[in-house]
Amino acid sequence: MKNISNKKLFSIFAVLLILDIIGLIFQTQKTGAYNLNGSYSEANSVGLIVSVLFGIVISFPLLFAFIAAVIALFMNKVLSYKKRFIRIFLFILVIFYALFLVRILLNFI
């Protein structure tokens, strides 16, 4: 099996991220959500959309960067650490955003 280049992984990640953002914006128009402090954010409110976008664009990739850093210590030691980290980080993001997109699509059905 051929290796997937980092450019292809990044383009797949970008497409999945855009599709997830669009799906989440449509989903927030239908339902509101409770915050961690117990307050309720109304459907289609700016606060809800901003917090959802912050979570999917910043929080999740930051968490997965830490996970990728640990995994890169042990995997494929032939490559340099930087190349291992980037490749593992992109793979984790692609897998997560693909699963997240499936979950969003199942909510629309």
Automatic annotation (TrEMBL):
From which domain of life does this come? Bacteria
| Keywords for the protein's UniProt record, in alphabetical order | Membrane, Transmembrane, Transmembrane helix
Residue ranges of the TM segments: 9-26, 46-73, 85-106
Q: What is this protein called?
A: Uncharacterized protein
Q: Which organism is it from?
A: Flavobacterium nitrogenifigens
